[in-house]
Amino acid sequence: MEIIRTPRIMKETSKRLLTQGKTLGLVPTMGALHGGHLFLFKVAKGENDVVVASIFVNPAQFGPSEDFDKYPKDLESDIMKLESAGADILFVPEVPAMYPEGFSTYIGVRGLSDRLCGAFRPGHFEGVATVVCKFFNLALPTRAYFGQKDFQQAQIIKRMTKDLNMSVECITCATVRENDGLAMSSRNRYLSPEEREAAAVVYKSLKSAAHMVKDGVMPASVTEHMNVMLKSEPLVSEVQYAGVYNPETFEESVLPEKKYLLAVAVKMGNTRLIDNILVEI
Ligand code: AMP
Question: How far is the CA of 125 from the centre of ligand 1 (A)?
């Protein structure tokens, strides 16, 4: 696996590969890789000639009181995982190379960015869209792979590529879970053993909500049920949102619809956990 640290070299490498007629699959990550990331590499590997992984903890997407400084970093072990996942190139730029002095262009995807996680993390999706746009301009991917765990992020990036006439195809891959249903996440390592056990309630609330909407229960009642379930777990310190949403607009569903996004964001102590499932009736 080739390791590239300089944006200019990343772009030159991708240009050369494209000239050779190769397809490039990009998997952007913040590192501390787990089974969820590895699944994205596997899918990318199956669909492209060359797989580019990026690892970059993007300061622009963290709020001032968030975990940017203590976000888990484990580059050596990430490199080994990427080697065995068959990634061809690792792009791992430093912050000043991505945001040099004078940097002042940010991408805002209106509407979609304000709801759900956006309501609790002001500026987060602007940071995400900006860095992903930069990665697209540097790695010149044919396809880019995102996880459904961050469904809102995946939809915002799809919107951005459409609105800005970008030619990359964005693919959303299924969420990979632990045995008890907890969605794999780099942040799960912050959880104490007791919190880790209790965290299973997040997926349980989604599964239970899925049964209810399939049985024709009205969205408002399902939302109430999810909130009661999550709040009854003493180690859940805050329910930021939990409910039934329109997967296109992220507005709360009021009337029966054909497709629902069931989504949750909670805090367990200082750790923020999100998860979702899509249900088609
Ligand atoms: P992150 O490193 O957390 O920024 O995640 C990088 C990519 O991996 C994003 O597209 C995430 O949606 C995706 N991802 C994170 N966790 C999972 C998971 N459990 N299953 C599938 N994809 C995931």
Answer: 15
- Output Rg (C-alpha) for the chain, integer angstroms: 19
Specify whether the CB–CB gap between 225 and 242 falls below 8 A.
no
CA 4 to chain centre: 23
User: Ligand 1 centroid vs 147 CA: distance in angstroms?
Assistant: 5
Residue 63 CA, chain-centre distance (Å), reads 16
Q: CA-to-CA distance for 181 and 207, rounded, in angstroms?
A: 10
Give this prediction's pTM. Answer: 0.98
Backbone angles phi, psi at 70, to 5 degrees: -105, 15
Report helix, strand or coil for 68. Answer: coil
For residue 15, give the nearest of 6, 27, 2, 24 by alpha carbon.
Answer: 24
Q: Which residue has the tokens 């956006």?
A: 118
- Confidence class for position 48, pLDDT limits 50, 70, 90: very high
Ligand 1 neighbours by CB, cut-off 6 Å: 29-30, 36-37, 39-40, 146-147, 149-150, 173, 175-176, 183-186
Dihedral sign for Cα atoms in the order 154, 27, 166, 170: negative
Domains belonging to the chain, first-starting first, are 2-173 (3.40.50.620), 186-280 (3.30.1300.10)
Confidence class of residue 67 from pLDDT cuts 50, 70 and 90? very high
Which residues participate in catalysis according to the annotation?
37
List C-alpha distances in Å: 257 to 71, 227, 247. Answer: 38, 21, 10
Q: Which atom of ligand 1 is nearest to the CA of 183?
A: 19
